[in-house]
Amino acid sequence: MMTSSFNSYATGVFDVLNADVREALLATGRRLSFSDGQLVQSRGHNTLDLAIILSGGLRMMTFGDDGSALLTAILGPGQQINEVTLFAKAARTHDAVAVGDTELLTLSQSEYLRFSKKYPEIVQALLVSNVHRVHQLVEVLNDLRALPKSLVLARLLLKNARHQQSSYNSNTKNCVELGLTQDDIAMFLGVSRAYLNKVLGGLSDLGLIKVSYRKVAVLDLAALEAWIQKHLTYDPVELFEELDVPDDT
Questions:
Q1: Lowest mean pLDDT: which of 89-93, 202-206, 210-214?
Q2: Average pLDDT score over residue span 190-210
Q3: From CA 26, how far away is CA 9, in angstroms rounded?
Q4: Per-residue model confidence (pLDDT) at position 142
Q5: What are the phi and psi torsion angles at 94 (to 5°)?
């Protein structure tokens, strides 16, 4: 089951496949292990393969020539990378760094083609996963273009808190300590830690969050959501839960 740590709520390919196809997939390709902080792949490389996270996680980042680093997401078990290279023959868009001890299942282009002919379910699974990912990224882009940083941050904290609730079946809790660091947040927003501390301080003064050493906790999910709705200039569009989608859509 996919458990993403930060800013990635897209369904992973393993979440869509049934148990029999997952087992067949696990018996295909090869497994690679990485230690915490190890560079898994670099932006610009064009090896034709598909990689699925089995354990640990991946920080999807972009490193600048000046030493800067931007964080797009932290992916968790069940999620996949490198579809853009495998299907579009395009260069990889991110540097990937292991989060904790990480194991990947990798399929070469020929292995994927053989597997998809025998188990065409993987094609639909990748389509669903990537449509979810595009939907999420468009919403993030809208936030970054249209909203002040304080509101972008509040939306980010709320989404991660809701996702963390869902991942750990703790939907009854209204207070959530987030599994992400202030460094992660600053790298995602593209701001300095000093600026981030100022914005976090504003939300903390409102009693919506608690800031401790490197960590952030949402104190009242309902209150944070109400504050966001009050200040939004457009209606956010979230992914439907499967059971909420009418049969005729």
A1: 210-214
A2: 92
A3: 23
A4: 86
A5: -140, 155
CA distance 85 to 82: 5
pLDDT value of position 6:
58
Instruction: Report all structural domains of the chain as residue ranges with CATH numbers, in order of start.
Output: 13-141 (2.60.120.10), 148-232 (1.10.10.10)
Beta-sheet strand order (sheet of 209-211)? 176-181, 215-218, 209-211
Tokens 């608690």 identify what position?
210
120 versus 142: the higher-pLDDT residue is 120
Q: Which residues pair with 80 in a beta bridge?
A: 52
